[in-house]
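Have a think about this chain, tokens included, and walk me through the fold.
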Amino acid sequence: MLKKLKIILISLLFLLVMACSNEFARQEYNSNEKISLMNDHYAKEFSVFNSTNEEISLTISKFNGRETLWTKKLEKNRDIEINLSFRLSKGQAKIVHIDNDNNVTTIIECVPDTSTDGFVTKTISLKNGQNRLKIVGYDCENIDVKIEFSKL
């Protein structure tokens, strides 16, 4: 009887942890203070990331949290154009730019109904110092991101 009770309690604890596993991501989604932190905080499954000077591609089967995709340190301010494609089948996610002063700017936000059909062009104002791009999301499934950079 005691052994069955232990098994039931452990099972319930496991289910509770699994049910709350994305809660941190949901709470941090609109927190520029958390997003701008240098460290990343995420949980993901089956991810493939490729990066060159001209392009980033990322596919993830499940994602919750915030992860840095790109960093660039500049000597002076400048604007760049990027072409990006952003799709997911479930959840909510965004790509953000974080400047050297930890200001967070949303470049594009995506839910299943607003996934892009092909590329859209955005202009990003990069500042002197460290610049970062992060993906931030919760309850996400089947993410597909492609970012093409103009010459830096």
Remarks:
- Residues 6 and 12 are 10 Å apart (CA to CA).
